[in-house]
Structures are given as structure tokens and as C-alpha cells.
Amino acid sequence: MSRRLTATAAVLALAMVVPGTAYADPPGSPRPSTASAAAPLPDGWRIAATGSERYLEWRSERRVPIGDARVGFFAGDRLIGYPEAVSDGHTFRLPLDEARIGRTGDLRVTAGGRRLDAAGSARKADEPPGASARKAAPYTPPPVNAVDPGVAGPYATTTGEYRLPSVRLPGMDTPVEMTGVVVSPREAPGKRPLALFLHGRHTTCYTPGGEADLIWPCADGQRPIPSHKGYLRAQRLLASQGYATVSISANGINAQDHAIDDAGAQARSSLVRLHLARWAGWAAKPATAPAAIRAGAPADLSRVLLVGHSRGGEGVNRAAMDSLHRAPADQDGYRGPVRWRIRGTVLIGPTLFGQNPAPDVPSATILPGCDGDVSDLQGQMYPDAVRGVGSGTALHSAIYMVGANHNYFNSEWTPGQAEAPAEDDFWHDPERPDPVCAPSAPTRLTADRQQRAGATYIAAAAQLFVGGDDRLRPLLDGTGRRAPSAGPARVHTHAVGGHRAPVLLPDSGMSVTGGRVCDQVAWDEPTACLPQGESFSTPHFALWHTRQELGRKSVTAAWTAPGTPVRIRPARPVWAGDSRALALRVAVPPDSAGTRFDVAVTDASGRRAVLGGVRLDGLPGSADISARWAQEVRVGLGAAVRSGVDTKRLAEVELTPRSRDGELLLIDAWGWRAGTPAVRQAAMPRIDVGRLTVQEGDSGERTYHYPVRVSGKGTGRVWVYTPDPETGMPRGRLVTVRPGVNPVDVTLTVRGNTRFSYDDGHAVSVKTARGAVVGSDYGGITTLNDDPMPEFSAAPVAADVTEGEPLTWRVSLSQAADAELWDAGFHVLPVTGGPEVSTTDVGAEWLAEYIGTGPEPERPLSVAVPEPYFPVMVPVGRTSVDVAIPTERDGRAEPMESLRLRFDPPGDAPHGPVFTGTVRDAS
Predict the structure, then answer these.
(1) Which among 373, 410, 585, 752 is least buried, having the fewest CB atoms inside 10 angstroms?
(2) Could you report the per-residue pLDDT of 628-680, keeping only the tens digit for each?
(3) Backbone phi, then psi, for 573, in 5-degree steps?
(4) Is residue 333 within 8 Å of residue 271, measured between CB atoms?
(5) How far apart are CA 296 and CA 284, in angstroms?
(6) Of the candidates 582, 550, 601, the residue with the CA atom closest to the CA atom of residue 668
(7) In whole angstroms, what is the distance from residue 906 CA to residue 97 CA?
(8) Model confidence over 877-920: pLDDT tens digits?
(9) Whole-number average pLDDT of the chain
């Protein structure tokens, strides 16, 4: 089966292979190539067999907890696929029919930007070990805010729980529970605003005194893990302040989201809105509500706050989007009317795999500085990716909490508090303690302090977004205030939106002297903002589906002496109008001290004014955390006004270094003024990518369009990515979209034939650029193979050799295939008589690469490891391959030795023949 892509609007896809045409060996072709079973696999990797199934398997020396970041297998910078975790907590397997391995020496495992298979395993992908050598500057806490949101309110509270019939959601075979724990104020007047909490991905069931598991429903003898009860502290605080609250359970989604393109975001959105629909019905008919709800004040569904943790954060973000821009009916589990209004979201250590935030719903994103799960802090994309998308009136805040980990925001994920087994998600190495995040580090927060700080900032967002109290804004928008109730937690904030006017949004049309415009995501390219080894040190560069992404720019500058200005000129003059200050989001290296620069502006007529000076100290950092985070600094525009600078036509921003040396990343700059405007909803189109499954056929050509749907109103622009039709490498294009028009006129031509290949996936990824929202960002076309697997056979080529010569067998196919086949292999069996070839009789390199062990101590090859097995890879288009086992000439007088191999063909076929190899002494 061969396939060809025809692109009339180019774009980029990940986890996609575009094979060239493959041909069977013609008559007179060269002899089979000789290979040592298959290309070598790195340490920890193997091709595993379980019954008739074959897997690409990686095993970690240390346990890898179930978390929210997706574990991915990569070959170099190409995604192979998302493996499934085995219950032992160490092993991950990807079926070979889902994997296109390619260069096996480049295999790697990552999750949340962290490379799991690297030495030390806690480092960022490709980042060198060791902590920063810089000496951090002393930290001075900011002034106290006028209002402390962490102070309990006047209302007594009541707690209860409801359980409703389970629901079926698209893409999930098992129904999902409808359970919520309710904390509400007693005797509060009128209807009360509602805060709904959604937990993230965690193990779902546990055996008392035993292990936890990721299944649903739970097995006999197991209990459900009550992750939804982990936010009671925040719920009680909000309830005392007058909010009705509910935290809902999503164990059924957690156990089934592994193989879903969006990792369950749409399913979680559906679950949230199904609960909201029930609350709306109960508000209309209070007598029908469960007792847990009737015991408290009734809810006002026109004032809703959604709070999501980890994948729950992405879920509530999608729920906010779906409430304004309807999802396609075939993807959505809720199709009823929207009888609520979401005023804001709080996102705690969230994922955002699609990098598709809801632009016109205010958000506050808590970024845990010691997050060991979503360690790339991809939640930074909630503010970064909304710029220029919606009306710009919604405030989007990022809250960087030094010393907080991922799990402790949920008490049911916290050791000593949880009902089920729980652990610290930050990978602590006692021999290499992290200077920021080790349990003993002075910057690390205890569970109690972290939960207190989390509840305080959730309440701050509630009082600002839902309550409309602008006195809470300085805690969230980069003004630099602290809440006493957050205790000693060191918290930094910045924001976009609200009363901000864009001044500098780096793009390719910008002119820079003294620095350069750089690409945030440009794998190992000279245009990259940071070297490859440092690219994961900043949350602002969190990866999407590709490691080469268009449209994401920053400005970078470095200096070794003060005085040489960095001049930044946008393509055309910009409007700062009635702004009172220029707010810049600037990242400096972690632990750096005293980066200083002056800020000046020049208008289109050449009038210039120096606005003031800035000093920045880096956040506490190490090689294991993402701490190159942009801090917000502001300089007043009063000097510009006094100098006659026209702030409605600013032509240049100038940064003049004043410290002896330094470096910076400018993320953006805004005209800023105080206050929180009313949020205005922009009319925008919505784009959703679907998945189409087609048959290959035995002959002819069929052409299919990628399934991309546009709904809503208005016109927007999106980045659309598909593979290059010739190279298969990522390529993207900016496309204008409007409802009723398919913006991705990219087709897949399928040529039918009778040669075997695996089911073949060709993906499309879509990301918003301006004036549009994206729901399902990833999908494509899967072509189903309808040809049988070739028959495998094996025969000896050199089965009786003198030591120093290779033992060789030939594996043959009845017909060439259009895919490399890893489905067959050899099991090493004990010999039935006489001495057996030992681990010192074969090549040490072969033994390490294909059996996964060393020669010492010497032992029979059949017990070198439990059930030793090595795979055979037959390349595309070939009908045979020679498998060679090198033997060692050791100079010792030895009797004749032998080994036994059982050839196992793929599928449900019975075991193949057993071969005996003989090695004779050479002395």
C-alpha cells in the first residue's frame, strides 16, 4: 500500500509518516542484507512480545507515577506515539502496529517537557545536568494588597454529596460517573454564585493497604479514589464567602482518555456542562434538587466560576469555550441549551495540549514552580496564546508560585492527607537534591502552605471575575502585591488583556538592532531564541504538536557592557492612547541578579522620551524546573506626555542596558492602565478537526479531504499544519477561515494495492492566529490496511560455525510489504543436551543491545534475562533479512557448544520451528 499527499494549502502533521512508494525485490536483486536481528535499541528499550502482540517497550529504572502530562515516544524530533502505562509503574508499551520507529538510536521518552529516559531522569529534555552557578539575589516580598481574599467570610457552611446515573460520552466505551461533593453557605441571602471544580488525571482505584490502578469501574475489592474531594479547603473558603461550590468526579474519563486525540478535553467539557445543566434545572425547580444542594443557598447560574486542576484545567477551559461556541454534535456529550454564564476560570498546573484557550473568558493560571508532572508549565499558553484572538477585554493572568508542586493542590493526591496511596510528584534524588524543589529546600512549600496559597488565589479570582471587585486585580495582573493569607509563598504574576493596548507583539515584520527577533519553537535552528539544551527552561516556549512552529516570536538580547541600546521598531506605529504606563513582560535567566535597563519610546515624528529604569532578578531555578519566566515590569508614560511624545503613534521602544552584563527575552509590551473592563464577546468562527477512516482497496486511486469544520460567525486566521508531500516534514501556512468554508483544502490520495502495510494515519493540526477559536485541534485521516500480513519463515544460513564467526539465520517473507515489519522474533530456549552457548561466547555489544544485559557473570544464554527474546526487522520492500549472532574467539580450549532458538512469526500463528546453532572451538 502506498500513499501520496496532495496539498493545495500546505500544513504540518505530527505522528505522521508519508512513505514513498515501496517495491518488492525484482528478479536478480542483491542477496539479503545481514543484520544483527534488528537495528540496535538504546538502554531500557526493547521489542516485547505478549502472546500474539508485539510492542515497542521502554522500562524506567524508577517508578513513573500516573499523571496529567502525556508520555510520548519520539525518534529524534518525530513523535512515534503515546504509549500505554503498564500497571507495574515502570513500563510503557506502544503496539508495533501504531509505531513507525525509524532511527532506533534516537529513541527518547518525554512527558511535560521532561526527558524520562535521560540519566537522572528528572532533567528537562536535552538539558545538561547541574544547577545554576549564579548566586540568586535576596528576595524582598512585595507590598500587601488592600484586600486579602484568603480570609474566611461570614457564612457557616454545609457539606454533602450527590450521585446521579452515569452518562455515556463520545469516544468512551464505559459510562462516566456523575458525582459531586457540594459545599455551600447556610442562610446566605438570595441566589449565590457557583464555583465548579474539576480534578485532573490520576489513578482511579485502589486496594486498601495495596496499590492504585487506572481502570474504571474499579475491580472487586478496590475502592474509587475520591480525587473530587481534594479541594474541600478551597470550597469551604469560597462557601464562607457566599459561593455555592461543587467538585465533580471524573475517574471514568481518566481511565479512558489515553487513546483520544485531545486526551479527553472534550469529554471533560461535556461532563462539566452536564453537571451545569443539572444545576440549572435544580435552580429552576429547587424541589427536584438532591438533599446536598437543598441544604445550602440556591445557585445563580448567571455567575459561574470554573476551577480545573491539570487535565481538569484544560477541561474547564474547553467547557468555557463550548458554552460560547458550540462544539460539533458528534464530538460533544452535551447537546442541550446553555443556561449558564461562565465569568472566569482558575486553572491549576493545567495542561493545554491543544494550546487553544478560550479568549473571551477571564482566566487565572497557577503555575507551580516545582511541578514534576506538567513540568514544562504549558499552562503559560493560557495567557500567551490568547493575544490577538478575541476582543482583548478579558484579563488572563499567570501566577508563578515558587516551591509549589503539582499534586499538593489536591489533598487526595497528598501523602499524609489522602485516602489512597499518594506521593510528591517532583522527582527527588537524595544524592542530587534540587536547590529549589527538594523537600529540604527553603523555597519548597509544605503541603499545608501550598494548599493555603492555592485557596487564597482561587478566591482572589472568584472575587475579581465573578464578584467584580477590582481591589483584587493587583494580586493577579502583575502589579506586585501579596495576600497575607498565602503565608510565606513567593508568588509572581503577570497578565494580558483587560485595560491593555498591544505595543510590541514580536513578529517577523519587526525591526530590531542590538538584539534580534527569534523563534520560540525552532528545534536546533539558528533562529531559535535559546539553544536546544535550554529551550525547555521557559514555560513561554512550551511545545505544541511540532518542534518547528511558525508565528511564535520573541526578542532576545545579551550584553557584556552597558550602554548599547536595543531598539525595537514594529512594522507600523502603534497606539498606546490613554495608557498610563508601558508594561513589559521580560524573562531573565534564573538566579541572575541585578539585570538593569532603561526604557525609552520614540513616536512617528521622532520625539523621544526616557520613561525610567528597570531592575530584574531571576526566579529561583535549577536544571530541573522551568524558571525562565517573564516578570511584568512597568514604567510610567508621564515623561512621554511631558515631552510631547505622541503615544497614539509610537514607532520605537528602546531598552538601554545599565548593568555590567545581562541577557533578556522580551515576550511582549503593552500600554497599561488600571481597572477591569467589562468583558466583550467577539463574534468568531470556530474550527474543529475530525477524524476520517477509509479503506485502502486493492486497486485504483481515491482522494479524500481532511475533515476540518468551521462554524460560528465572522472571519479569522489560523495556522494549519500537514506534512510536506515530498519529505513528510512539518510545513505550515496561515489560512483565512469563515463559516461554511473548508479552510484546509488538503487532500490525501490513497492508491490501492495488495501489499501489506499497517493502518496509516495522516494528521492535520490547527492553531489559532487571530480572530478564531479552535476546539479539536488535531485529527486527520486513517487508512485501514485490508491486505494480509505476509507469511514469515526462517531457515539456517550458518548454523554450525567456528568461534569468531557469526551464527546466521534467514527470515523470509512470502511477499514484500509497504512497511518495515517488527512482528517476528526469536526466543532463546535452553539446550536439551551438552554445553550451552554462554553470555561470554557472544559479542558483548550484541548482548547489550538485543538481550539487554552484560556478559558477566557468565551464564547460559537462555537464562541471561527472563525469557530472552530478540526481534527481527524486515525493511520496507524486502522479502528477506539475515539475522546474525556474533560469537567470540576466546582462546580457551572448550567443548562444542550449542544454542536453541524458537522462531515466532507474527499474529496468532503457532510457534515456528526450533533451530539449533553449534559453535566449535577454534583453538
Answers:
(1) 752
(2) 999 999 999 999 999 999 999 999 999 999 999 999 999 999 999 999 999 99
(3) -55, 150
(4) yes
(5) 15
(6) 582
(7) 11
(8) 999 999 999 999 988 888 999 999 999 988 766 788 999 999 99
(9) 89
